[in-house]
Amino acid sequence: MILGNPAELPDHLPAGLRLLGLDVGTKTIGLALSDTRRVSATPFETIRRRRFSEDAARLLTLIDAHAVGGLVIGLPLALSGGDSPRTQSVRQFARNVLARRDLPIVLWDERLSTAAVTREMIAHEMSRARRAAIVDRVAAAYILQGFLDFLGGSAEP
Known about the structure:
Blueprint: E1 18-24, E2 28-34, E3 41-48, H1 52-65, E4 68-75, H2 85-100, E5 105-109, H3 113-123, H4 128-151
Helix pairs in contact: 3-4
């Protein structure tokens, strides 16, 4: 189910299950994984997009392998806060994932997350090649950490 109120996510998760953060792009899906206490997010993996069936199969394999109980998907709202064509695409991606696995999903505002992460990498003098290799999963961690901070680290009863 896609939750309208992000604060409700902990009510739909058993203790000890992780959250998986997603930064869904047109070419890649950046992934980040929370710890089991749902306090911190770690960049995890980048899936190179192919057909949805292949993307979903990889995603579900990772969900099962890492005891993931819910998803936090970055929602690329327009700067005005409204929807954009990319927003609609991400909403459809979430619905397609739900058709394969019933998991609680939060769509989390991710405006400028990739830009913020890229600026930080440049400030740390990271090479362009290294930035390109990790930016999607680091952006996913930025999105997931923002959500975990919103919960205040108290997602587990």
